[in-house]
Write a structure and sequence with these properties.
Number of helices: 3
Radius of gyration: 13 Å
Largest sheet: 4 strands, parallel
Helix content: 25-40%
Strand order of the largest sheet: 3-2-1-4
Structural class: alpha/beta
Number of strands: 6
Order of helices and strands: EHEHEEEEH
């Protein structure tokens, strides 16, 4: 299965073009997702140097990426990334928490949802 992962507000707080603070419990959940054989693709509006910095941040924090704004193993001419699940703080229905005065993804609830879907035990 493929999980498309937004960056700002999802992995880190919003500090674009910089990198914000890590969103609580994000790394732990994504580690479990990878451990159970699922692919994670960074899916963000960042580009150029800011995209490279986000990808480097993910990799240096143990997030195993199968692609960055594309999936090398899935041919696609439309430009839209295919994924089974999209996690984005701006996505309708994405659970959010208040973290230091900012709405960010609630990874504890996301983890429960992934368990309910059978992605992780």
């Amino acid at each position: 299965m493929i999980l498309a992962l937004d960056f700002d507000g999802t992995v880190t707080t919003h500090r674009y073009p910089g990198i914000g603070e890590r969103v609580p419990y994000c790394l732990e959940v994504l580690e479990r997702v990878s451990m159970y054989g699922h692919q994670i693709v960074l899916w963000t509006c960042r580009n150029g140097e800011e995209l490279d910095e986000a990808a480097t941040y993910c990799k240096s924090n143990g997030i195993v990426l199968s692609g960055v704004n594309r999936i090398p193993s899935v041919p696609n001419k439309s430009g839209k990334i295919f994924a089974d699940i999209y996690i984005d703080d701006r996505g309708l229905g994405t659970p959010l928490i208040d973290f230091n005065g900012e709405k960010v993804v609630d990874w504890i609830t996301v983890e429960r949802m992934l368990c309910d879907l059978g992605w992780i035990p």
